[in-house]
Design a protein that fits this description.
It is built from five helices and eight strands; from the N terminus they run βαβαβαβββββαα. It is of the alpha+beta class. The chain folds into two domains: 142 residues, no CATH class; 37 residues. The strands form two sheets. A four-stranded antiparallel β-sheet has the order 1-2-8-3, with helices on one face. A four-stranded mixed β-sheet has the order 6-5-4-7. The longest helix is centred in the C-terminal third of the chain and has 24 residues. The relative contact order is 0.18.
């Protein structure tokens, strides 16, 4: 599992940032008129499972095998992670694999991301009913403020800890008065 702090950029914005090259997107235009191209999922911290181990299964069968709390990922979150990881490390993820995402294109096919070779990261699509040995399902779960607040080093979290202590003291006083 991977933690990624997603910036909230759409695929359209990511394409502008990374371009079409060996370190960016595979050069193609088919998806530029699709809804998912301009969607902006909520920014924040996501725990990502690339899903390369969920192959040889239909989409419905892959869904049944997702870890608790995980749902199929939006392609923008996945693409940003893959390209930023490559920029930082020089290592290509999903080099010989595609993974399905949550998005469906206008013809009913599901958006897939992968095959990140020297020609760039490919965005494709496939039927939910197909199952191949190189087609997984990537998933994620978003950390909300409640979970993120457990990071006790942030000033917001310290305030939360102090508030919990105050509430515990108040609870003790109420219990003493009510003799519970």
């Amino acid at each position: 599992m991977i933690i990624h702090n997603y910036t909230g950029k759409s695929i359209k914005e990511l394409l502008k940032k990374y371009g079409t090259s060996s370190s960016g997107f595979y050069p193609q235009d088919w998806y530029k008129t699709e809804k998912f191209f301009t969607e902006k999922p909520p920014k924040g911290k996501y725990e990502i499972d690339l899903g390369e181990n969920l192959t040889n299964l239909t989409y419905d069968d892959q869904l049944k095998k997702l870890s608790d709390g995980f749902t199929p990922i939006h392609p923008a979150i996945l693409i940003e992670y893959i390209l930023s990881y490559y920029k930082e490390t020089g290592q290509r993820l999903l080099e010989d694999t595609f993974v399905r995402t949550e998005s469906v294109v206008s013809d009913g096919y599901r958006v897939c991301v992968g095959d990140f070779g020297s020609w760039g990261l490919d965005v494709g699509s496939d039927l939910d009913g197909s199952c191949d040995d190189d087609l997984g399902l990537s998933s994620a779960r978003k950390f909300d403020k409640k979970i993120d607040a457990l990071n006790l080093e942030s000033s917001e979290s310290k305030g939360l800890v102090e508030r919990v202590k105050e509430l515990e003291k108040f609870k003790a006083k109420v219990e003493k008065v009510l003799k519970i």
